[in-house]
Amino acid sequence: MTISIVYDNNACDQRLKTSWGFSCLIDGLEKTILFDTGGNSALLLHNMKELEINPAEVDVVVLSHIHGDHVGGLSGFLKENPHVTVYVPQSFPESFKDSAVSFGAEVSEVYGAKELLAGVYSTGELGTAIKEQSLVIATSRGLVIVTGCAHPGVVNIIRQAREIVPDREVYLVMGGFHLAGEATSRIRAIIAQFQQLAVQNVTPCHCSGDETRSLFKQAYGEGYIEDGVGRIITIPLSG
Question: Is the Cβ–Cβ distance between 140 and 134 less than 8 Å?
Fold first, then answer.
């Protein structure tokens, strides 16, 4: 399985454009998943082209939450490939769901935790003011958790993932941790909770913040995987 970061405000591959938002492509599973679509479809499609990712090869789109920097690229993507299932939190506006359907996409609403594909789960809607779903993928190395912005709290998301698949350790947590601008003491406390939950590897992206990335890197050493648009992470599914 590979996870390619195709939209992020942090740089990695100089061929690619950066902008505030997040999207990643998950390949090598039963179906190919685009998780979030960033904030701008032209930029998303540019980066996909540079990475030689064909939009037509995407089978499933999973949207974490309603903020524009995570869903803004959807309409332009659907113009290239409307033949996808779009999984959205049930709380998304009806107008948003109707718009996706108008392009020809199938929209599937998610409320509680559920298995979307073989070994791939949604945490279900978490949080109150901002409701958000995250992805949980079961691999032979452990759980891979992909977050959009982690508005419900990244530690809460990890705990929910471990309840959904209780017999696996957490191999990787990646995505937005929503810690930019937070006090150093709070970031350190969250790192301690990650370690208590036996999270093996981390990739803080998007809204995590420079200090968060620096502190996680200090704490995790080789278990810290650099983020940035164009970063490709490879994870064995079995064996």
Answer: no
Count of domains for the chain: 1
How many other C-beta atoms lie within 10 A of the C-beta of residue 128?
Answer: 8
User: Is there a domain that residue 236 lies in?
Assistant: no
pLDDT at 239 over 70: no
120 SS3 class: strand
Q: What is the rounded distance in angstroms from the CA atom of residue 134 to the CA atom of residue 143? A: 12
User: Domain residues for 159?
Assistant: 2-225
Rounded to 5 degrees, φ, ψ at 204 are: -75, 125
Q: Measured in Å, how far apart are the chain's first and last C-alpha atoms?
A: 12
Q: What pTM, to 2 d.p., does this model score?
A: 0.97
Q: For position 123, which CATH number holds?
A: 3.60.15.10
Question: Looking at the domain assignment, is residue 101 inside a domain?
Answer: yes
- Residue 196 predicted with pLDDT over 80: yes
